[in-house]
Amino acid sequence: MSHSEPNNKLFIETVGCQMNVLDSELVVAALRQDGYELTGNMKEADTILFNTCSVREHAEQKIYSQLGRLKYSKETRPNLVIGVMGCMAQKDQKLIFQRAPQVDMIVGTGQLAEIPELINESRKKRSRQMAISLSRRGGSRTEVADSFQSYDPLRDPTMRPSPHQAFVRIMIGCDKFCTYCVVPTTRGPEQSRSPSALARETQALAEQGVKEITLLGQTVNSYKHVEDGKEYRMADLLELLHKTEGIQRIKFVTNYPKDMTNDLLYAIRDLPKVAHYLHVPLQHGCDDVLKKMKRGYTVPEYRDMMHRIREIIPSCAVSSDFIVGFCGETEEAHQKTMEAVREFRFKNSFIFKYSERAGTKAADNYPDDIEDKVKKRRNNEMLDLQNAISAEDNADFIGRSVEVLVEGPSKSAVKAEQNRPTNASTNQLVGRSRCDRIVVFDGNPRLAGSIANVQIHDCTPTTLMGDIITRTIQHGSSDLLPILQG
Ligand code: 5AD
Ligand code: SF4
């Protein structure tokens, strides 16, 4: 398709997790090969795709309201193709056509490779297209797993968080079946990709100038793949990818508490490119609730894991997710979560109000009985507590220097620049420390993609502020200022 041909303007909206951000990158890359151009303006698009999330109801409502606004769009744009892809497509399937008849195409998480073809079919025949994977009870494990294809063929640098950062999917799906969670249904059975394919992909990204990779999976530390007679676990995979020249930092999310082996912790400690940062969601601080959530561990077991992390990698930052207002959560249970937040001093916590999801064990067995205003109050209490802890722990960095992988101009700086003339050579830059803390400092935008040492002089709960250390201070010694690990 050439530049001037019609029907090639693509608008894509992505909601949800990093997995979705990566899926959108891959779909855009494939469509660009077919001659599509991206547009940021939904009104001038010929193809509109929504990459959707089902983890909480709010994310779905957002998409249905967007679709509602397109209800009459076909009257003036008869060629328009509207597609819903991702988790909501896999979960709601045909129901989406019923709720939003203007939708032309529904594509599940395991069928993304078919999108270019399905758009063509839909436009050519003006007919509805749907491609989804088998449901978890729709066949043998192998049949279901095969119906969820991992889709990682082409990459598109313009769709990345920044030119130097890229996601690499190491596994798809989840087999944990936490009772509140829809992901095992929407993303299918857990399947790890082969180490050799991952090494090739990482190499290709490094050749494109990527400095930091974030390995993605629902439970990355459960990674397991046998290749050439050798079993690779997460520690082995890190060791393999660590060899990639040009890659300076490796992160991975999300971890599952029960699968945090000492081998993995030693690998993090011993491989200098690996971030000292672990996202390991605790979800709740009360054993009865954890049991009801079917998380598979108790608070004391999580505490043991935390002690091992702190002992083996003292500078490691740990972050968590929490759900407040889960079915039957008492005030006492909530206070136990507050206590856990106090005890474990997470770098940050993502806190969510429980949202009942049809088809999950929790929806089938326990009433969603905590009032929304109680959920909100508990959510705010947790946020306030976590913010206070983050502020205290960030203040410990003042006066120390940290190693920052520079991402580029900070977003708030970019916004401010739009309202005033630019000073070309220095800018407010943003990057992350090895322990994943956000660091803001002034510097030349050309530093993007390199490692800088930054002396911290101020902080907020979410950000460290500092000055770049450009030269060695030489008073008889040529040592750099002490660099804080992390
Ligand atoms: N309601 C609220 N939060 C949820 N999460 C997963 N399922 C639900 C739900 N039904 C949260 C968990 C998970 C994060 C990605 O989303 O905390 O770790
Ligand atoms: Fe959902 Fe639990 Fe799997 Fe995480 S581990 S994706 S919360 S089922």
From TrEMBL:
> What does the record note about the cofactor?
Binds 2 [4Fe-4S] clusters. One cluster is coordinated with 3 cysteines and an exchangeable S-adenosyl-L-methionine.
Does the keyword field hold Ribonucleoprotein?
A: no
Q: Which GO terms describe its molecular function?
A: 4 iron, 4 sulfur cluster binding; metal ion binding; tRNA-2-methylthio-N(6)-dimethylallyladenosine(37) synthase activity
Concerning Pfam families, the annotation shows: Radical_SAM (PF04055), TRAM (PF01938), UPF0004 (PF00919)
Going by the UniProt record, its keywords in alphabetical order are: 4Fe-4S, Cytoplasm, Iron, Iron-sulfur, Metal-binding, S-adenosyl-L-methionine, Transferase, tRNA processing
Residue sites binding [4Fe-4S] cluster 1 per the record = C17, C53, C87
Q: Could you tell me what reaction this enzyme catalyses? A: N(6)-dimethylallyladenosine(37) in tRNA + (sulfur carrier)-SH + AH2 + 2 S-adenosyl-L-methionine = 2-methylsulfanyl-N(6)-dimethylallyladenosine(37) in tRNA + (sulfur carrier)-H + 5'-deoxyadenosine + L-methionine + A + S-adenosyl-L-homocysteine + 2 H(+)
The residue ranges of the TRAM domain are: 395-470
**EC number(s) given by UniProt:** 2.8.4.3
Q: Where does [4Fe-4S] cluster 2 bind?
A: C174, C178, C181
Q: What InterPro entries does the database record attribute to this sequence?
A: Elp3/MiaA/NifB-like_rSAM, Methylthiotransferase, Methylthiotransferase_CS, Methylthiotransferase_N, Methylthiotransferase_N_sf, MiaB_methiolase, rSAM, rSAM_horseshoe
In this chain the Radical SAM core domain maps to 160-392
**Which cofactors go with this protein?**
[4Fe-4S] cluster
Under PROSITE patterns, the record lists:
MTTASE_N, MTTASE_RADICAL, RADICAL_SAM, TRAM
Q: Is Ribosomal protein there in the keyword field?
A: no
Q: Which residues belong to any copy of the MTTase N-terminal domain?
A: 8-124
| Localization of this protein | Cytoplasm
Per the record, what is one GO cellular component? cytosol
Report the protein's function. Catalyzes the methylthiolation of N6-(dimethylallyl)adenosine (i(6)A), leading to the formation of 2-methylthio-N6-(dimethylallyl)adenosine (ms(2)i(6)A) at position 37 in tRNAs that read codons beginning with uridine.
Q: Which HAMAP family match?
A: tRNA_metthiotr_MiaB
Q: How does it assemble?
A: Monomer.
Q: Which family does it belong to?
A: Belongs to the methylthiotransferase family. MiaB subfamily.
| Protein name, entry field | tRNA-2-methylthio-N(6)-dimethylallyladenosine synthase
